[in-house]
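ARCHIVE CARD
Drawer: 12
Card no.: 0347
Subject: one protein chain, sequence and derived structure
Cross-reference: see card 0346
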Amino acid sequence: MSVPDDGGGAMGTASGPAVGAEPEAGVSQQHSGHGPQPLGRYAAAAALCALVPVAFAFMGLHLAMAQMGPPPLGHVAHLLPSAADLSPTTTASLQSEPSRAHKPLNPEQVDPRYLAMLFAFEDRRFYYHFGVDPIGMVRAARDLLLNQRIISGGSTLTMQVARLLDNEYSRTPGVKLRQILRAIQLERALTKKEILSLYLGLAPFGGRIKGVRAASLKYFGKEPQRLSVGEAALLVALPQAPEARRLDRHAESARRARNFVLRAVAAAGVLTPAEAQLASLEPLTAESAPMPPKLMPKPSSTNVAGLFAGLTLGINFVAGPATAAPIEPTQPDYFLNSAEQLVLDVRRRLLAPLPDGTQQADRDALWMFYAGRTEPVWVAKTGWTLAAQSVIDEIKRADDWGLDASAFEIPALPAETAGATPLPEKELVDAEVGLSLAVLKYARFARGGRIEDPATQLSSYLDRKPQVRPPFLVMTRIGAADAPDEFLRKLHPQHEQFEQLRQRYLALRDGGSTEPTAIPKGAKLRPGAMHQDIALVRERLRVPATGAGTAFYDDALVEAVKRFQGKRGISPANGILNAKARRALNEGQEVALSTLLANMEQWRWMPEDLGRNHVWVNVPEFKVRVVKDRAVLLEERVIAGELDTQTPIFSEAIETIYFHPRWNVPESIKVNEIGPAIARGRRRDMVVMRNGKVIRPSQINWSKADIRHYDIYQPSGPGNALGLVKFTFPNKHSVYMHDTPSKGLFDAAQRTFSHGCVRVKNPQRLAEMLLSIDKDWSADRVALLLNGEPEENGVHLDQHIPVHITYFTALVDEDGELTTVKDVYGHEKRITQALQGKWNSIDKGADHLAQVELARRLDDTDRAKRSTSSRRIVTRSYGAGGGSSTRVSSSGSTANDVFRRSFGY
């Protein structure tokens, strides 16, 4: 980029319209009788009035910059002009003091993650503004007015460089104005990359440490090319208050600042919340590496006053011209000297219109990614690189992973060939941008991004989010990957269930059978029998034959049949092959591709790490499993929500197990059902309280009383709606797992009887398992709590155990058997319609999203009304096993969710 022309030309251009406007106005007046209409004259006059202050402001800006003088860039070694452009006096001055020059740091020598965090936290619009960001200033002013304190600053990276160059750190309006003017000077004189290099080389990090490289060597003992996420965030945070956050003096302040940066950049999409959380646990460096050579004091302004003539806007300070050595070539020169020009044109291409459907986040991520590169990722001068060809081949195999390969637009370009004619520059730029966009789209779809928000697009009860990775990190990692095609494959869920469903999908898609031959109707077969149908059962359950042959009903097959009967709810599970067992063995023989695809898509929404120990509730199966080290320790029946009060699908973590819980009636049930019932004299063991005091219902004038001013709960006991045990995992749905006195409902095949919560058939066994995992408690110790006094005893888990409430209608069990179950809530159908693009056909339900808003309002009201009384009845008690526990009557404020429509459990 060349230096701007001198001031005369610029000022003349600005003032030209103002000078020429007077004669035009005069002509208009002469012909006013039969020329322009009065409205036109008024508009012209208004335009002239607006131009006059603009012209004066422009001239004032020039004069102010002239008064400031040129930026003090002479002590910056990387940006010195050539010797031919310097006067003999200046050249001699620099040669006599070479050690005083600071050296800017090339962005390519810094970890790309650091740059991404820096832009996201300090200056998101760095590549778009002219040194000053009006949008950022408006945002900072808005935050100040709303919060009565500084939340975000309006300073840009260019303004920070201006402050560092002028060595002005006070916050007076005059100094701030000077920084703004200096920032505009720098933007007119230097490229964005040069300005960024200045910041990376001059940023303060406490003490005498200046520059990212010096800080990395000092604090981490390594060059800044490879930084951990926590290290990068720390380097972003320190320059804001370098002395107040020095690691050797204020380590805790530095830690808090680093973690604040991590949260901010995660909110901006540069990191995932999990990556930010993990990085916040990184310890700060205890020992430092030797410091780089001591930086010399800043040279006096008299030595550099004339170094950069022409850097101010239109003002010359010396007779001869001077130019800053440009980093960005002014003319395209593809691959003859460097590929950097192609990267610059890629960035320009990203500012132009892109294909329909391109997400703004992808555009921004690619801009930041290519801003830190000097060569393309995918193209060479004659075509695709080997890395690009491997990525293209993998994208074309998207169907193998349950995606649609036709959804990805891949530019047409030949493979790189030695000696071939270089391709046109536009074709190379379009190919580079096009393949990068295809990669980001593939990465998004592989993580479930085809349905961006299931809760709003499909059903309020599907409270899941696709596990999409930030696009900048995708490009950074695939750009550095040795095998980019393998990187794409690993973007898909790594869960074993996903891969097993995928293999069944491939077999069915390619014409294979997902299940063995159907077992015909026939006689009852007992263990030890010899029959041709035994071979079919053996094939169905994948049990190898013994020496007696495939048709012999041996002990190994008997045990497999018993396990199968138990899983299918066939009682008794005695291993006898009767008519019911034969029918069950044939169920699920036919499975649709759409069923497998819908279930594979749900796995893309699941957390990457389910937890070494976790609880898995699969609603369509009506089962809960406890998993430890990938092994299922417990499998039990559950009851889920009715069709109009469904159990929501989400993940949380179990925090507390309550024995003999009380039921605090939620607001909606209290107003609509329990209150009217009590007013009619039907107490149902309910206790009424107001302001923390128990009140007899007969003392209340129910014709005038407002039930919302009263708290109602059901004490623990045999008839309590929650039974003997409750498992809480705080969530916005007010849903939890609990016992129930209505055990007979567990015998039904479709167990949709609750009002949202999950009822467990054997909660004691579940509690024993969880407390054994978390506290190493014995079953006897848990039994003591159950057999103790009937009051709420809460046992808090030391390590919260993840609980995943899912909706899988197809899964493969530990025996390798594919099982399909009924789509009771219709979620599978909704997902299938979305994947097929039939968005208008999706039935979201009449109350779609209404229950979420209702829950929020009622929960806020309920919490506010209970805040005083509930605090008064928190007591301390001790469990029967000797371990202390807490009775917290306000924990888990609802027995079931706020959508209950009838009293009960």
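Annotation on reverse: Confidence is low (pLDDT under 50) at residues 1-36, 77-101, 286-337, 854-905. Residues 515 and 589 are 6 Å apart (CA to CA).
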